[in-house]
Every structure is written in structure tokens, then in C-alpha cells.
Amino acid sequence: MKMSIKETRVKKRRPEKTRRLRGGSAVLAGMCALLLFSGCERIKEAYGKLSGAPAAGAPVEAPIFAVNTTPAVQGQIRDYIALSGDIVAGSTVDTYSDAAGKVTQVYVTVGDRINRGAPIAAVDPSKPGMNYVPGIARAPISGIVTSLPAQVGMTISQTMPLARIAGGSALEIELYVAERFISKIALRQPCEITLDAWPGETFRGSVTEIAPTVDPASRTMEVKVNVENPGSKLKAGMFAKVRLITEEKENIVKIPSSAMIQRFGEIYVFIVEADGADSKNGIARRRIITPGILIDNILEVQAGLGSGEEVIIRGQSLLEDGARVNIIERVQSLAAN
């Protein structure tokens, strides 16, 4: 089969043309990749400017943590046991009749202050066919009538009380202390007493009597506390809340317990020191402390912290020693007493 000269020339030129097309495609692909890469770099640079992200190679600033602080205070702290009970008269005596019979007259009312020997009630011991002169039941002690079961017309026996008299003005509170606190109770131990009837006022008292045995059913021990009653504001029968002071310390350093952190067997707090390079912010410093009494969210610091040092009480959970902090709020310090 014979081919013409033109056809032969065409067939010989096709490979050269193909090589030219392939070379052009490679150059075009390289230019596109270069443009794409430069476009990505420009996008990254623009994004970094908009988001505030540091450019490559720029120094990274340390984060600043927002915190609340309060100064450590030197003052008093008290540990106590919280109890409650009813106020009762210091001495109470019931009045009885010498003979059984019918009550014909009552001479007193509840709340009357009477003297020893004052008449309480008249009791007629007469029976059918037997008439007697009514006998008078008299007060065995001086005091205030707190209860008066006797009523005119009722028949009583010699074992039925006619009246109850609280002697003197002394008042007591009957308390029941759990067995685990018995070792902390002692005679003449001071107490602070509050009542809902007199909000905002605190009355004083002390332990006057401790039961010699523990109730096996309730596992509690009875304790009696006398109550100072200025102005006769307190009455028998009132409900009182009592704090038995078990330990009292003066001139100690104390802080809110929320400042304390316990990690890996260490107990510490963070304080704020001034940053010489930045007047607006401070530097957090870790201080290992020795805790003491913890009561009512107040912590005694026995060692590791001084009075007046600014302690971080909120925002310290993520801090490390030397972290930069911004004080958002300075909380009022604890009361000294």
C-alpha cells in the first residue's frame, strides 16, 4: 500500500505538535498552583489581621485572667457547736392541796408575781353528811405563776397540782449534745444565744450543769445553760438557738474559705503582687498555707500568709504561679471580730 508524500509529512509532524501541547499544559498547571498558593497566603494574612492572631514569628502575649480579691484580716475567730432548745425557768415548783376536794375559789392568774405563803386556791373537802371548812393551798416559794391547772368547781386529789410557780428571775435552756461532741463541753463554757423573737440581738450565757450519763436511746447528753436576761425580754417557753463556744483565738489571720485550693496534697492560696511593667494588671503568686479553724466559710491561716495581703477568692482555679491577672472586683474584707 502506497502513501502519498503529503500524508507522510503530516504523520511525521503530529508527535512534535503533541509534545508542544503537553509542555504548555504543564506550564499552565504550574502557574495555577503558584497563583493558588499566593492567594492562600494572602487569605491567611488577611484572616490574621481580622482575628487578631499573631503573625508567624511574632511573640505570643501571656493571657490575662479576671479575678476577685479581698485582703487577709487579723482578728478573732471562734469555733462553736450549734444547738437549740427551749427556755425554762431556773427553778419550778408545783403547788398541791393538803386535802382532796372541790376547788371553790382561785386567787391568782397566770403571770402573777407572788410571795411565799400567798394563797393560791381554796379547796372544800366536805362530803355528803360531812361539812368542813375549806382549806387554803399556799405558794411554797416566791416567783411567777407559769401554769394554773386549778379551775373553780373541779374536784382534785392531793396528787393533782393546783399551780406551777417559777422561782426568781433566772432562766435556763435545756440542750441535748450529741455524743461525738461531749469532749468539747465544760462547765462555765460561754454561749451566744439568739431568738427569732428578738432578731439582731445576741444574749449571753454559760454552761451550768452537765448530765453525768448519756441517754442510750438518743446517744445525747443533757446540758443546761443559764441565760442573762436584761430588760426581762426573755420568757420561759421561748425557742432559742445556742452557740457553745468550744475554741476562741485572738490576733489570727483569716480569709474567706473560697480562696483555699487543695491539690496534690498541698493547700495554698494565690495572692496578687504589683506588676512593675503593667500598672493596670498584677501577678498571681502561689502561697502554701497552714490552715486552722474553719467555721462559717471563714478560714484561719496559721502560717504562710500575712495580714493585709490581697488574696484571690474567685477566678483562681486556672491560675499558675506568675500568671497575669486583672482585678475585676475588690470584695470588702471580713470583720475583725
Could you characterize what this model shows?
The structure is a single chain. With 337 residues, the protein is mainly beta. The protein has four domains: 1-57; 64-77 and 250-330, conserved putative lor/sdh protein from methanococcus maripaludis s2 fold (Beta Barrel), CATH 2.40.420.20; 79-86 and 168-249, Elongation Factor Tu (Ef-tu), domain 3, CATH 2.40.30.170; 97-161, RNA polymerase II/Efflux pump adaptor protein, barrel-sandwich hybrid domain (OB fold (Dihydrolipoamide Acetyltransferase, E2P)), CATH 2.40.50. The protein has one helix at residues 5-51, and strands at residues 64-71, 73-95, 101-106, 113-114, 119-124, 135-138, 143-147, 155-156, 163-178, 190-195, 198-210, 220-227, 239-256, 261-263, 266-275, 278-288, 290-295, 298-303, 310-314, 324-330. The strands form three sheets. A six-stranded mixed sheet has the order 14-15-16-20-1-19, with no helix packed on it. A six-stranded antiparallel β-barrel has the order 2-9-12-11-10-13. A hairpin with a 2-residue loop joins β15 and β16 (278-288). Mean pLDDT is 84; it is low at 1-13 and 46-51.
Task: Please describe the structure with a list of short key phrases separated by commas or semicolons.
single chain, 337 residues, mainly beta, conserved putative lor/sdh protein from methanococcus maripaludis s2 fold, Elongation Factor Tu (Ef-tu), domain 3, 4 domains, six-stranded mixed beta sheet, six-stranded antiparallel β-barrel, 1 helix, rod-shaped, disordered N terminus
